[in-house]
């Protein structure tokens, strides 16, 4: 183990202990191979030096200049992704078994164990950026409940960190994400997985799932915040949500947090009726439609942080041109400036051009 000044940090160095900021925030956990993003993160916390292991990992998630591989291929071929994939599958299987046990009135459902395993999976990962990348490339599942619940739990955990929630509330937010849709198991499978448009009668049945979630969770000694987040995660601040049409003041802050994480996850994941949508399409959707529906402070924090995870990434535009995001415009988050060769394209100035995929 050795102490290294920040200016001497290199990709692949492995943290020998948790990197903690002056105000006690976990910046990078122990045992993580540093990437350019992580080094930038450490810099942003006014830390002067950190302890790293003597050996250096030669493979990491950063794209080497001139690499032929797309970013997605690079992420998928990384050792970190292989470990994540294994952890993810184990957690999805555990969740499936536990949720089904609960529905069948089996006693093997222990929410604390499921939550602890999920937290372990999150805490063993590197940065929030890393987890968001790994998740975005983990598109093997198109189910609406187990993988979705796990993803929403991870996003809620990261999002609560972006909102500077206390450690206790980050855990609570994770639990809110994990259990918010458990009531979907009470909805007939053919409705949940229907590829086409739902009939009004089917949609009425779908709308009962938050209440089912609330009732199922209420059997356990869990915080009211978790029950209320499940009950209210489809409520919208302008009263357009369900089941009660609650408005801003009546919706709890954890429900507001889950609502954003839930919609982002659902739109950026594969579904039986469509492919995953490009995150920039989802960000545009939130910018156009979100400020009245969601807590605006929460939403802006979420979008700013999500967009920043795509800085320096290669993207394809709707006109077929490919380039790298080099500047995020804070007043038009879905319209960054893209560098194409020697040229800079400010998407804010082009009405008809948008980012269609991350490549
Ligand atoms: Fe839901
Ligand atoms: Fe959901």
Compact overview of the structure:
By secondary structure, this protein is α+β, with helices and mostly antiparallel strands. It contains 14 helices and ten strands.
Descriptive labels:
10 strands; 359 residues; single chain; 12% strand; binds fe (ii) ion; three-stranded antiparallel beta sheet
Write up what this structure looks like.
Helix content is about 45%, strand content about 10%. About 0% of the residues have low confidence. It is an alpha+beta fold and about 350 residues long. The protein has three domains: about 55 residues, Molybdopterin biosynthesis moea protein, domain 2 (Alpha-Beta Complex); about 210 residues, Orthogonal Bundle (Hypothetical protein af1432), CATH 1.10.3210.10; about 45 residues. The chain is globular and about 60 Å long. The strands form three sheets. A five-stranded antiparallel beta sheet has the order 9-8-7-6-10. A three-stranded antiparallel beta sheet has the order 1-5-2, with no helix packed on it. A two-stranded antiparallel ribbon has the order 3-4.
